[in-house]
Design brief:
With 251 residues, the chain is an alpha/beta fold. Helices cover 31% and strands 26% of the residues. It is built from six helices and eleven strands. The strands form two sheets. Strands 8-7-6-10-9-11 form a six-stranded parallel beta sheet. Helix 2 packs parallel to helix 3 and helix 2 packs parallel to helix 6. The chain is elongated. Its EC number is 2.1.1.193. GO terms for molecular function: rRNA (uridine-N3-)-methyltransferase activity. This is Ribosomal RNA small subunit methyltransferase E. It is an enzyme of class 2 (transferase).
């Protein structure tokens, strides 16, 4: 994927401080544990990401049980990912967390959960500030694994009408088996793309009508009936491919 910023030559970790060339950054207990599992030692090369478009090359200068210290060398700045915005249903917690990882791997620009009417029937659903913190933690782990430079912008869960009002201009799709194939869609150069994925059981007719009225075109995905997290992965990947194919605006 184009979001990858470097060859996987060294272990990659996420820093919670700004990456500054020449600075020493302290990483937490989780990173220190991971380093010990990987048998890293003082002097070994490591890579850092901040999730805000920066990557750094450094060396481990201290490894303790509770923390690790990395001295940074070069710091690089990376362009943001293509403007693909993923709107997902509030749904089963575990499956949402799995999807959050994939959203980082694919490289979406934002993640926005919607409390659809059928979301309310899910027992162990992922919603609220505490769950959003778990989503962020899972995305940070995926950032290290995928070596991406940008973390998606996380929006809090919201009702559909608020999500529609906040949707950026550009291409808009809502996944619907009755729509035209998404793969046949088009995006203007430098245009954003927003994809809405409904809950298990589908959208209620009035929800679909509200999206269509706001300019969201029904779009079908390849394959059979997909679970929401599978549909979101497929839709995000196709939308990203369409945005990348459109490329920058001509001068």
């Amino acid at each position: 994927m184009s979001a990858r910023v470097a060859a996987p030559t060294v272990a990659t970790f996420v820093a919670h401080e700004p990456l500054v060339a020449g600075a020493q950054l302290t990483l937490g207990e989780d990173a220190a544990h991971h380093m010990r599992v990987r048998r890293l030692d003082v002097g070994d090369a490591v890579a850092l990401r901040d999730g805000a478009g920066h990557s750094g090359e450094g060396r481990l200068v201290r490894l303790a049980k509770s923390h690790a210290v990395v001295e940074l060398g070069a710091v690089h700045e990376h362009a943001p990912p293509p403007p693909v915005h993923l709107v997902v249903p509030v749904a089963d917690r575990d499956r949402m967390l799995w999807l959050a990882e994939k959203a980082v791997e694919i490289g979406v620009a934002s993640w926005r959960p919607v409390l659809f009417r059928r979301s309310r029937s899910v027992g162990a659903r992922g919603e609220g500030p505490a769950f959003q913190a778990k989503v962020r933690a899972r995305m940070l782990a995926a950032l290290s694994q995928s070596e991406a430079a940008w973390l998606p912008h996380l929006h809090p869960d919201a009702p559909l009408e608020r999500v529609i009002a906040a949707a950026p201009a550009g291409a808009r799709w809502v996944c619907d088996p009755e729509g035209e194939p998404l793969i046949a869609g088009s995006v203007a150069p430098e245009e954003a793309a927003t994809v809405v994925v409904g809950p298990e059981g589908g959208l209620e007719p009035d929800e679909l009508a509200a999206l269509r009225e706001a300019g969201f075109r029904p779009a079908a995905l390849p394959g059979n009936i997909l679970r929401f997290e599978t549909a979101a992965v497929v839709a995000a990947a196709l939308a990203r491919a369409l945005v990348e194919r459109a490329g920058p605006a001509l001068p």
